[in-house]
Structure formats: structure tokens, C-alpha cells
Amino acid sequence: MSLTLYLHPLSSFCHKALIAFYENGTPFTPQVVNLGEPASTAAFKAIWPIGKFPVLRNEATNHLIPESTTIIEYLDQHYPGKTRFIPDDPDLARRTRFRDRFCDLHIHTPMQKIVTDRIRPAGKNDPHGVEDAKRTLSAALDILNGAMASNTWVMGDNFTLADCAAAPAVIPTSIVTSSD
Fold first, then answer.
1. Where does residue 57 fall: left (phi above 0), alpha (psi -120 to 50 degrees), or beta otherwise?
2. Across residues 79-96, what is the average pLDDT?
3. How confident is the model at residue 177 (pLDDT cuts 50, 70, 90)?
4. What are the backbone angles phi and psi of residue 34, rounded to the nearest 5°?
5. Which CATH class is domain 90-176?
6. Any residues with CB less than 8 A from the CB of 40 and at least 6 apart, and which?
7. CATH topology for 3-78?
8. What does residue 66 show for φ and ψ, rounded to 5 degrees?
9. Is 150 within 8 Å of 84 (Cβ atoms)?
10. Where are the strands (E) in 33-135, listed by range?
11. pLDDT value at position 28?
12. Where in the chain is the domain with CATH 3.40.30.10?
């Protein structure tokens, strides 16, 4: 198999990329990076020194594709399937990319902040940052829900990149934004 996806199971950005793989049945090898094992982390950082997930490696072409959006666009271009994640219409493609960025910046990022804070060592938490993240997440979900009120999917009747971005937040946000 020439496609290897380096991922971590707690990363919503990894789930975003996984949705695209599974939606089109694109074959790949998942490579879970165990951040608790220094050797696993070092091996991943040898491939991608930034150390952020996900990263796709195409062994056949020697391409390294970091970041979930870029991975999905790469799959759409080089491994097209039944679902086209970026619409052909330029205006709809731009709006789809906006919704993708909106979900990444205003849903995934605060959600990851909340999750990461929960697994930090005692005394290393960021209560102010978590409260800010919860406010941002709540506002963003309200905006997204309003935009989707009359749609089947985020951008209308077709599943797109924007849905890959929105889907990982559906269940986890109800968990991480609840008061303890």
C-alpha cells in the first residue's frame, strides 16, 4: 500500500482526514503515533518535524502531505472516488473551503484545546483558555447549525470537504462543552 496516514486517535483533524478516506474507500495504511513512546514520537518527527497530525505519505510518489485539508484535496485530485470533496463550481468551491476553514479554526481548534487540557498533568491546566475555547466553540456551532438548518449537508445536497471538517465535532462537542 503506497498511502500511509500518520495519526493520533484523539485528534479531530485526523478524524477529518479519515472520513475522506472511508467515504471514497481509498486504501491506506493507518500509522498511529504513540506520543507516550519517545521512539514513536521521534520516528514521526523525523518524517514531519512540526510534529502535528495528520500527515499523509505517498511512498509511490515520495510525496509528504501534512494537514487534513491538504490531504483531502490531494485525495480528491489524485485518488478521486464517488464523492468529490471540492465542487467544480469556483464559487461553491470557495464557500466550501471557507466552511472547512471555519470548522478548523472555530470548532476543531477550541475542541482540541478543551480535550488537551483534560489530559494535561495536574497544575498545568489552562482554565481561562478552556473557558474561552468553550465560548468560541459554542458560538461556532450556533453559526454552523444556522447555516445547515435547511441543508442535507453543510454545503447543501452534496457531501464535501466541509462535511469532513464538521463531522468530527458532532459528538465530541456535546461531551467537552458540558459542565462537569
1. beta
2. 96
3. very low
4. -90, 105
5. mainly alpha
6. 33, 34
7. Glutaredoxin (3.40.30)
8. -90, 165
9. no
10. 55-58, 63-66
11. 97
12. 3-78
